[in-house]
Structures are given as C-alpha cells and as structure tokens.
Amino acid sequence: MQCDVCIIGGGLVGCSTALHLVRAGKSVVLVERDRIGAHASGANFGGVRRHGRNVLELPLSTRAFDIWRNMGTLVGNDCEFMPTGHLKIARSEAEMAVLEQWSSFGAEHGIPVVLHDRTSLRANFPWLNTSSFGASFCPGDGHANPRLAAPAFALRAGAEGAVVIQGDGATTVEDARDEFEVTLHSRRRIRAAVLVNAAGAWGRHFARYYGDEAPVEAVAPQMFVSEPVPYIIDAVLGMVTGGLYLRQIPRGNVIFGGGRGILDPNCHRSSPSDRVFAETVGLAGDLVPSLRDIAVIRSWTGVEGHCEDGLPILGPSPRRANLYHAFGFSGHGFQMAPAVGAVLSELIARGFSETDISALSPRRFTGAKSSILAESEI
Amino acid sequence: MRAAETLLRAGLSAALIDEAPLAGGQIYRQPPESLRRPARQLYGSEARKALALHESFSRLRTSIDYRPETLVWGAREKRLLLSGPAGNTELAFDKVILATGAMDRIVPVPGWTLPGVYSLGGAQVVLKGQACLIGKRPVFIGTGPLLYLVAYQYCKAGAEPAAIVDTSDFTAQIGALPRLLSQPATLLRGIWYNAALVARRVPVFRSAKPQKIEIRGRQLVVTFKRNGKSFEIGGDAVGMGWGLKPETQLAEILGCAFSFHAGSRWHLPRCDAMGRSSTEHVYIAGDASGIRGADAAEAAGELAAFAVLEDLGHTVPQTRRQRLLAHLARAERFRSGLERAFPYQVPELAGDTVLCRCENVTVEEVRAAISSWQISELNQLKALTRCGMGRCQGRLCGSAAMEVLAAETGVEISDVGSIRGQIPLKPLIGARFQRKAAP
Ligand SMILES: Cc1cc2nc3c(=O)[nH]c(=O)nc-3n(C[C@H](O)[C@H](O)[C@H](O)COP(=O)(O)OP(=O)(O)OC[C@H]3O[C@@H](n4cnc5c(N)ncnc54)[C@H](O)[C@@H]3O)c2cc1C
C-alpha cells in the first residue's frame, strides 16, 4: 500500500492527525494494533482542561480548547463535551499559593480563572466538603466522553478518505529509499513518504528505530464509576496535589480517578489495584461527602505514556527527516489531541504551524538536561 | 459445602465465603428463622438432599472459617478481597475453589422491565428465602427445566399459575430423550413435575414466541404467537428465564482461560474433569463452569476438593474419585440433552425492546449504533452504546447483546467477544472505604 502519510497508533492523537491530514489533501493510512481508542484514549477520565497545565503546553492546549467547543462541526459528534468549568481544590495555604501563581499565567494566555476562599467555595459548590482551604475555577473547561472521541475522529477520517486499519499492528519500520516501509503483523506493507509515531505508551519503541530517545514509561492511571445518582456536581474537580479528579455526567454516574493500577509485565494491558481502589474511593468520599453512600460499579485502568518531565514528545524527529513523533502525553493528551492533529498536519502539509510546540520537541532529550518542572496530574 | 467438607476431612484448614446469610446455595436456600417451614414444603422431592446437606454443614460449622453475608469483590494473585459484616478485609489463600453458581439467562421481551415481572430464579428466591410469592396467578415464560420446576413449586405453595409459555417445542424434547436417559432419576423428576402441572390443569404452551408483556388494569398480559396464531394470557405476575448462565466474573479476574461453549452459547472457564482451571491455584466446581445442576454440583465440589488435595500431595480415595467422575460424565451428557430439549434460541427481537435495563438501551438503538459505528465486538458495543455499562455490568443483558451483535454483523457468536469483568465484582458502597468520620 502506498500513501503520503502513515500513522502508527489509532488513539485520539493518531485519529485526529488522520482527519486533519485528509482534510489537508494527503493520502493517509492509519494503523492500529488493537481497536480504535482501545487504550488511553478510550479509557481516560475525559477531563478537558487547560486549567493548571504546564505553561509550555498552553499554546497547544488553548488551540485544543477552541476545537473542543466546535467538536460537533469538526467530526459530526460533539463527543458529549460539556463546558462545566474546572475547579481545582487547595487543601492548604501553600496549595492556594500554587493556584494564585497559575492564575497569572492563565491571564497571560487569555485564560481567566476565579479564585475562591473557603466561604465562597461553600456558597458556590455546596456539594463539596467543608474542609477545603480554597480553589480556583476555570470557566469553559469541562469534560467529554472518551469512549466516543477517537472512534468519532476515525469514522470521520475514514469517510473522508483515510484508510483505517484495525487489529493489525506495525511490527517494523524500515527505510526504503527516502520513504518508510512499515510492515504489519499480517505481513502487509505500507510505503509512506511521512511517518507519524502516535503509538502512545509504546511510542518510544518506534522512536528508537531512528535513535530518538525519550524517557517515557508506561503507567496505568486508575478510574472509577459510580451508579447513577441525581446530577449535582456541576464542575470537573481536580486537586492541586493531583491525587483525585472527579466529574459527574447528566446521566448521573460519578466518574473519578486517582492513583495507578497494575501493569502487565509486557506493559500491553493493565488492571485496577485493590489498594488504590480503597484509597481513591476513600478520597472521593472525603471530597464530596454524598459519595460515601453510593456504590462504585466499576474500576478500570488505561495504559499511558508518561514522560519524565510530564510533557509530551511532539514534533519532527531530530534525526530522520519526515518522521514525526506524537506520544507520551503524560496524562494530558485527551484534551490536547484534537489540536495535535491540527498542528501536525500543518507541519506536514505546509511546513509550519502558528501554534508554538517547540518546548515539546523530542529535541529536548538529545543532549542538555531540561529544567522543565513536572506536572503529573491528569 | 461439599468441597469444604472434603477438605476439612483431610485435615486442611478452609474458609467458606458466601454472599448469602445462610448456607444452602440457590437450590437449598434457607429462609430466616422467623419464616421456617418444613423442608418437605420448601424443597419438595429434594427435601432429603437439602436436609442432608444442611446437616452435614452444621457439623462443619465449628471447624471451618465460615463467613456468611460476605461478598468477594475482587482478587489478585493469592488474595481475595472481601466485603462483609467485618467491613472490608483480605484473605490470603493457597488454593481457591470457585463455586459461584449461576444466574438466570434472560431473553428480553417488550415489557420485561415492568413491575411484577421477575426472573425464574428471583421467583424461587422470594419463595424459598422470604416465603413470598411473586403472584397468586403468575405466568411463567421461557424454557428449560427451571420453568417447570418453579411452576411446580409455586403450585405446591398455593399459587395457581395462569400458564406456562415454553419457547421450545415438544419434538426437541422427545429428540433429546436418549441423552436425558443418562440421568433417569432427574428425567423422571422432570416428568413428574410436568404430570403434576397437568393434573393441576396448568395450561402449557410449547413452541411459543413471546411478543410482549403489558399492564392492563390490574393484570399483566402476556401476548405470544404459536403456529401463526396470537394468544393472550393474563396473570398477576410474570416469571421468565431461559435456563441459567454461569457466574464467571471471579474466574476471569483470577486470569482463568475461557473458551466458547456452543451448546450454551456462552464463554466458559476451561477446566479439566476434576475442576482444575488454567490458573494453577484456581479450581472451579458446580454451575460456575457449566450448568449441570445440583446433584452434579455436589459431586463436582467433592472432586474439586480432591484435585486440591492431589495437587498438595495428599492421596485421595480412588474408587470414590472414579464414582464421582462417572457421575459428572453422566451429568455432562444429560446437560447436552437438556440443551437439545430446551435450546436457547434468541428470537427476532422487536426494535423497541429494552435490551439493557440498567441503562435503558433499546434493541433498535443498539442496531443503529452497530451499523453507524461499524461495531464488531461486544466491549466496543458497550463503550459506544452504554449497553451493559450499568449496575449489573452486563450480567443480565450480555448474553442477548451478544446475540444481537452476531445477528446484525454476521460475525459468529463465538467471535463477538464477551463483556470484560473488572473489580468490584458487584456494586460496592463508598462508605466502606472511609477512613475518617464525616466532618
Ligand atoms: C486513566 C487515564 C485517565 C486520563 N485522563 C485524562 C484526562 O482527564 N484529560 C486528558 O487530557 N488526558 C487524560 N489522560 C491521558 C490521555 O488519555 C492520553 O494522553 C491520550 O489519550 C493519548 O492518546 P494517544 O493517541 O497518544 O494514546 P493511545 O490512546 O494509547 O493510543 C496509542 C495507540 O497506539 C497503538 N499502538 C501501539 N503500538 C502499536 C503498533 N506497533 N502498531 C499499531 N498501533 C500501535 C495502541 O494500540 C494505541 O491504541 C488519561 C489517561 C489515562 C490512562
């Protein structure tokens, strides 16, 4: 099979890249080993927030915010995006100081937030516990349904001409003159001028083919869902410490996450840890006391690539022309993926993008150690 | 209970964990003290067996770590996670025997979610455990031996069933006779129930195709077709069930390998004749690895205990072992006969039938999603439609959802997958994990 661009990985990053590229007139083959969205993109919390992000991600995150608001027009499915606003909780004065500091970064990037002290928290978010010190609220952020997003992008991309292959992974990548030759598990081969490595937690493997090293390891954040109860939690919750994140959907289920589950030895799959179960369910009941009386019906995990500095590996390979990396999203990729596709397709089709992703470049691991602060929360 | 008894006799220390407040399982379930009735009345022809089991268990009670009202909500490696009167605890083990039994298999019929409609198993639970009836004039729909057994038990308890609506046909039941003769006593019991129902003039309709259940005035009316004609039967309650399906979630969590079983159209954990699963320290006995009924379950429990003992280097009585194996082999043959006599057939489901009652997803919605999203696998179906995503996590709708998916896509039923199990195995209240008191 011959195409302009071959994308390895059918998570939201790969699917969004596929859609943007076909719209830019490129012929695209997307290769997914399992099913579209089967990994991090389908299993994640569904948080769509700019609030509290590392400033180096903000250009990308802000662009993604605009896409999320128009998701229905872009892919024909709003993916249940709800701009409820995001509330980040501080449990101490020191944590509040972190929020205050971020509020000025936010202002610089055009993301205004509202700071709440204990009293105004009580008045505005009566379902919250009474022991929180304060919080910062970011209107416009919100949540969406991760089970729909990647399949919606893939379906759209397929309808507009991309070839979407599922259940058949890439096993090797080789050079064939100036092109790439990707061999699949089924022995099918794909020739492409450009290769996008969107293999999520497994992206490091393909990066290494061309000597690109990135300190990305697989982790398995753990999620929970409760039985449906009346809808009262009308904002996405997060904590400065990152230990817990929580949202409720209008159907009534409360979805929350915190802690990490257990990875299989081969890092392909993961499963929930019962210790984390006990801890996180306990934390959720501390934060929203009414959750103590309701039942948790399921816990699950997803395999995510976590980079040492908490930032994705995104941009052209420093070593091989026409190779682009987009993996290791470190818990932030669901929100940013729609913009990742837009930026990559601009870089591939036009050679430049107005969105500044230079701080996320794989180049940062070629030599000098970076001094970027980690922000590990989802 | 039989497994526990065998292990204790060999000098092993054992714990018995049961979700129910009193021992006996589904079939020999005991009512609470205040609702005691004579065994003969509760268990009918099986009273002797029930009493024998209860007695042998009460002798055991002091020597076993018995934990009633305790749910196993998960497991990892050699630890079980328990939730019970003692709160949430863990139990470390060397070997575990899963005797988790089975639950009703339901074919959704429009109206099956109405108040007054119960599963056959549920109808039996309220009768045995709570001394209640689902109604004085219930209509029983479905197929399988339980259909007739429950109707019979309801008669004995003073109800007058309005009708039995069986979706299988009589010729299939005759055709299965040779296999059913492998357990003549059980077959006889079945014939006896039938005869008793005939004697009480309970109308039995075979080869019926249920169309809908409706509330009319104070009645529940069941409409079905038979030989092209439409019938209506009114009653004050409906019990429905299409045989049983094994409860296999714990085996799945413990990493046991499964294979598709064509007769029951369901994925079953792979076991050897003694009950050894593919996971070294996990054994499975009774209906949990395939529906063979109560007598076989007693044999299987003892055999699984023998397997544990053998694997721990004990010697087990060989003649007894052979006898039990032969008993199970007969039960297996009987089961294949039952599967022929009462084949599990999913009829063409009407579009407006609610398929997933927890999430209120209709057959029509599922069909539309299958075609618009190009769905070919059950977990994908769940992710995109919410079918199987609710409180019961697909226990109730999983089997019918598989059928709809296979029928829509033309994919073999064996290849559409099954809903992946996760912890907690059943809904678990958050308060159980609270460390601090409420502020
Ligand atoms: C539990 C959890 C909660 C999260 N919560 C949030 C959140 O609230 N907000 C947020 O913004 N982000 C969140 N994230 C992060 C977000 O989900 C990820 O960053 C994002 O989905 C990454 O998308 P991806 O396409 O890079 O990865 P993935 O979705 O993992 O996709 C990578 C794909 O590559 C495929 N692949 C790998 N190797 C091969 C191969 N050899 N051949 C073919 N295909 C291959 C895999 O099968 C996989 O489908 C969370 C992550 C998890 C796990």
Structure in words:
- The complex is a heterodimer of chains A (378) and B (439).
- Chain A contains 10 helices and 22 strands.
- Chain A starts with a strand and ends in a 28-residue tail after the last helix.
- Chain A has 2 domains: 2-65 and 146-214 and 308-377, FAD/NAD(P)-binding domain (3-Layer(bba) Sandwich), CATH 3.50.50; 84-141 and 218-306, D-Amino Acid Oxidase, Chain A, domain 2 (2-Layer Sandwich), CATH 3.30.9.10.
- The relative contact order of chain A is 0.21.
- In chain A, strand 9 (170-176) and strand 10 form a beta hairpin.
- The radius of gyration of chain A is 20 Å and the shape is globular.
- Chain A is of the alpha+beta class and 378 residues long.
- Chain A is 29% helix and 27% strand.
- Chain B has 3 domains: 2-103 and 245-339, FAD/NAD(P)-binding domain (3-Layer(bba) Sandwich); 106-242, FAD/NAD(P)-binding domain; 354-415, Arc Repressor Mutant, subunit A (Orthogonal Bundle), CATH 1.10.10.
- Chain B contains 14 helices and 22 strands.
- In chain B, the strands form 8 sheets. Chain B has a 5-stranded parallel beta sheet with strand order 8-15-9-10-11.
- The longest helix of chain B is centred in the last third of the chain and has 24 residues, at 318-341.
- Bound molecules: flavin-adenine dinucleotide (FAD).
- Residues 8-14, 31-34, 38-41, 43-47, 169-170, 198-202, 221, 223, 257, 302, 304, 327, 329, 331-335, 337, 378 of chain A line the site of flavin-adenine dinucleotide.
- Chain B: InterPro entries: BFD-like_2Fe2S-bd_dom, BFD-like_2Fe2S-bd_dom_sf, FAD/NAD-bd_sf, FAD/NAD-binding_dom, Metab_Enz_Cyan_OpOx_G3PDH, Opine_Oxase_asu/HCN_bsu.
- Chain B: It comes from Aquamicrobium defluvii.
- Chain B: This is NADPH-dependent 2,4-dienoyl-CoA reductase/sulfur reductase-like enzyme.
